[in-house]
Write a structure and sequence with these properties.
Elements (H helix, E strand, L loop, with lengths): L3 E2 L4 E2 L5 H4 L9 H8 L7 H4 L14 H16 L4 E2 L5 E8 L2 E11 H5 L3 E2 L6 H14 L1 E2 L3 E5 L3 H11 L5 E4 L6 E7 L2 H12 L4 E5 L1 H17 L11 E8 L5 E2 L1 E5 L7 H8 L3 E7 L10 E6 L2 E7 L14 H11 L13 E5 L4 H9 L5 E4 L5 H10 L9 E2 L10 E2 L2
Parallel strand pairs: 6-11, 8-12
Antiparallel strand pairs: 1-5, 2-3, 4-5, 4-10, 5-12, 7-21, 8-11, 9-10, 13-20, 14-18, 14-19, 15-17, 16-17, 16-19
Helix pairs in contact: 4-6, 6-9
Length: 415
């Protein structure tokens, strides 16, 4: 069963939400955050990217930077830019991209569920990134930013979501840069709160969609606090961390594409010939060509687009990893032909999120920066859940979720 609870969210007043809210910490660098914050002292970047309050070049891992985050978090509360709700609530957070809306429930998930594997992951985490987020959680004694979960579709929860969606939201704004719409409701009815708790209790698992490092950090800090408290009883707020949970069928996963700097010493003709061993290769001309189905890839090379269809026998439909296009391309193209084995460390490859479109792949190759580009068909949420259920881990750089959760709409304090 998935244990969740409502919480006393710390939120900006309605009239300040667009001053406070921001993109998540890990989708932009320090200088981008400095530019977006500008002279807005209410920007959440002063808490989640506090290096912007120091001279350019200051490391985001400098101990003074973490201390500044806590100082700014207190300042935001003292000035009334963030205010804690008087009682515990669940919240609803809706995002609209390209005319499609997905509705998430903002809850507190249990750290024990993460530790026990009932909150399932599909990616490896890096210890250095975990430690960075752990420091941020410790110094603020709060989950400033939520993680992003998926759950199996549920008709009872959907009825609640749709009922609130028909009412006026607490927040409703269009985010700068991407132009996506974000809406937020407070669930005030205690009967609805109980139904939500009960419905989640029937679920054997929740699935991390995005935010693996934040999830790990929150759970590890909770475990630390359990050990440090001689009177620990399991009901303390530090046993929980903030998550936005979406029905799996509503989520949009975009393609996560590859660009490579060289062809491993081969000419274009030799490379195409090598591909024909495991793929049906078809020249599609000079117009951008997007993969139409699973196991089809688009290659951009020498100002031409090619369709690459994996031949029967090159993948295993019964293997949740082996059937993935990201695995097929990694094994049969990047590793076997181009000798790019470690996608996490190789300097010969880069990755482009699907929101940028295939035109970005063309641009980077045409500019001479890259030699070729490979576009993949998007992974499905069902594939992610199947892999998580199997206990396996997806290859790196396999998923790109959009839209990203905005930060600063609600914060969870650990005490």
């Amino acid at each position: 069963m998935a244990i969740i609870k409502p919480f006393k969210g710390i939120r900006p007043p309605k009239e300040l939400v667009e001053k406070v809210e921001s993109r998540p910490y890990d989708v932009l660098d320090s200088e981008e955050a400095r530019a977006e914050a500008g002279d807005n002292e209410m920007s959440l970047y002063h808490i989640i990217k506090p290096e912007i309050d120091f001279p350019v070049g200051t490391s985001e891992c400098d101990p003074r930077v973490y201390e500044k985050a806590a100082e700014n978090f207190k300042k935001f509360q003292d000035k009334g830019w963030l205010v804690q709700d008087a009682r515990e609530h669940y919240y609803i957070y809706a995002q609209t991209m390209n005319g499609k809306t997905q509705y998430g429930l903002v809850v507190c998930a249990h750290t024990d569920d993460y530790m026990a594997g009932r909150i399932k992951k599909h990616e490896l985490t890096r210890r250095d990134k975990e430690e960075d987020r752990m420091k941020h959680v410790r110094v603020n004694n709060a989950n400033i930013e939520p993680v992003f979960f998926a759950y199996p579709d549920n008709a009872v929860l959907n009825e609640i979501l749709m009922r609130y969606a028909a009412t006026e939201p607490e927040y409703d704004f269009i985010a700068p840069i991407d132009g996506f719409r974000h809406q937020f409701w407070v669930i005030n009815d205690e009967k609805d709160t109980q139904v939500i708790t009960d419905e989640f209790a029937k679920m054997p698992s929740l699935y991390i969609a995005d935010g693996h490092h934040r999830s790990a950090a929150a759970a590890l800090v909770g475990a630390e606090k359990q050990k440090q408290n001689p009177n620990h009883n399991g009901t303390e707020e530090y046993n929980f961390f903030m998550a936005v949970c979406f029905q799996a069928s509503q989520l949009t996963i975009l393609d996560y594409n590859r660009v490579v700097k060289d062809l491993n010493g081969m000419s274009s003709e030799e490379f195409l010939a090598a591909l024909q061993v495991n793929f049906i290769v078809e020249d599609k001309g000079t117009e951008i060509y997007k993969p139409q189905q699973l196991h089809e890839f688009s290659l951009y090379l020498d100002q031409h687009w090619f369709s690459l269809k994996a031949k029967e026998g090159t993948y295993d439909n019964n293997d949740p990893i082996g059937v993935l296009d990201v695995d097929i391309s990694s094994r049969l193209i990047l590793d076997e032909i181009l000798n790019i084995g470690d996608l996490r460390s190789s300097q010969r490859i880069d990755f482009v999120g699907g929101l940028r479109g295939l035109g970005e792949l063309k641009r980077r190759v045409d500019s001479g920066e890259m030699r070729a580009a490979l576009a993949l068909y998007p992974v499905s949420m069902q594939q992610i859940m199947d892999i998580a259920d199997s206990g396996k881990i997806m290859p790196p750089k396999a998923t790109w979720f959009e839209p990203k959760l905005r930060s600063g709409l609600v914060i969870h304090k650990l005490s």
